[in-house]
Amino acid sequence: QVQLVESGGGSVQTGGSLRLSCVASGRTFSGYAMAWFRQAPGKEREFVAAIYWDSGRTYDADSVKGRFTISRDNSKNTVWLQMNSLKPEDTAVYYCAAGINGVQVVRSRVDYWGQGTQVTVSS
Fold first, then answer.
1. What is the DSSP letter of 1?
2. DSSP, residue by residue, 85-122
3. Residue range 29-55: mean pLDDT, rounded
4. Tens of pLDDT along 73-83?
């Protein structure tokens, strides 16, 4: 079975940093786009960042540009999200996802979801 397992969430103060990881297994992800989404209480799921498994090309949401960086290591089947200069507005459950269509991934149309990891930013 395909699994995406997130870890690295936690609680930090405003301005702090966290690094989330997503370990993927169960299939080859060649040709896929990998992505991070987040969902805050009472809000809809929001796209954060995406990376193509093969080329490494990235795309970030405007709300996190300059603060968050997505990366991957194909040999480790792992995707990371480095989050710096965190704000209370970043508080959410963060989900790893994978989709065969990179354009649709940005629209939350993905093939696989992880279980999520909580990020809490306090002031």
1. -
2. S--GGG-EEEEEEEES-HHHHTTT--SEE---EEEEEE
3. 97
4. 999 999 999 99
Note every long-range contact of 73-79, with CB atoms under 8 Å and residues 24 or more positions apart, other chains counting. Answer: 76/23, 77/23, 77/24, 77/25, 77/29, 78/21, 78/22, 78/23, 78/24, 79/21, 79/22, 79/24, 79/34, 79/36, 79/51
Residue 49 in tokens: 């960042």
- CA dist 27 and 66 (Å) reads 32
Give per-residue pLDDT as tens, 4-41. Answer: 999 999 999 999 999 999 999 999 999 999 999 999 99
d(CA 9, CA 25): 20
Residue range 100-121, pLDDT digits in tens: 999 999 999 999 999 999 999 9
Q: Residue 16: what residue type? A: G
CA 90 to CA 5: how far, in whole Å?
20
